[in-house]
Amino acid sequence: MSLVLRRKPWRLPVGLPIDAASLSPDRLAGIDRAEIGRLPVLVGRLAEPLGDLFSIEGEADGDVVVEGDLAGFSRVGAGMTRGRLTVRGAVGSRAGSGMSGGVLAVEGDAGARAGEGMRGGVLLVGGSAAAHLAAPLPGRAGLDRGTIIVRGSAGPMAAFRMRRGLVAIGGDAGPGAGTALVAGSLFILGSAGAGAGALMRRGTIVLFRAYDPLPVFRSGGRRRFPFLSLYADALAAAGLPLPPGSGGAAYTRFTGDASGGGRGEILIREEPS
User: Which letter, b or e, does each residue of 47-81 get, where b requires 16 or more Cβ atoms within 10 Å of its Cβ?
Assistant: First the structure.
């Protein structure tokens, strides 16, 4: 049986930061409901018992469901290494920060810096994500292994300094997507904002709508890329299908960022005739 936490009608102070890193299967597994209710949730500088904010049902067997709007809660699922955490609502900033395993599934929107510093695991966002999706932790590279799938749009600077892994955005992406990309793959199914791939060193950005890359990218002609069929199958299985025929379509390839000797690539699907 899953552990189910339902948010109580507790009036949160407006603008006060709420650190909900205790909402993680790692923290909740193997302890009884009474102990779960005593876990601290930092509201500003004060620790509030989790049981004052949520009703608690079921048992913590590695599968946790949280019901309610958590848009004011930061770091939900931070540090996850295992299990599955499903949030039936929105989450605030830094959801999944530093996670290295398990699945964090957010059915609503995610705030800024979702998936920052990920080293593994899967982050699924059913709505949209704010700025700096898959951001780096201070002094480190960005996403380094792991998968982030956003079914809606993403704000500016998605996948900044990504090192390894996969980020897929079902809607539009704001300016600067894939900036300083070190490696890894970034898929944008909607429109990409200005400056995609600026300063990228390696890695792949795949676009499915017409796009004019920065002048520091050189055109390398058009061809098909069989490896995209594997991504198409995997993303379809995860609930984010690519446009029909994308696996076998032709793409225009651009390489760069030449200003720094980068060897990354931007693949732009040809418009269907």
Answer: ebebbebbebeebbebbbbbbbebebbbbbbbbbe
- Phi first, then psi: give them for residue 239, nearest 5 degrees: 90, 15
CA 89/CA 105 separation, integer angstroms: 10
Length of the chain, please? 273
* DSSP three-state, residue 232: helix
First to last CA, the chain: 51
What token pair was written down for 252? 């225009």
Q: Residue 272's pLDDT is what?
A: 67
Distances (CA, A) of 213 to 17, 70, 92, 257: 39, 37, 32, 10
Dist. CA 107–CA 129, nearest whole Å: 11
Residue 145 and residue 121 in contact, taking contact as beta carbons nearer than 8 Å: no
pLDDT in tens, 18-55: 999 999 999 998 888 999 999 999 988 889 899 999 99
For the chain, what are the domain ranges?
A: 1-62, 68-269
DSSP helix/strand/coil, 220: strand
Q: Contact, 84 vs 63, CB < 8 A?
A: yes
| Side-chain half-sphere exposure of 129, counting CA atoms within 13 A | 37
Distance CA 94, CA 134 (A): 9
- Smallest CA-to-CA distance from 184 within 146, 217, 136 is with 146
Residue with tokens 């030449």: 258
Contact (Cβ atoms closer than 8 angstroms) between residue 270 and residue 252? yes
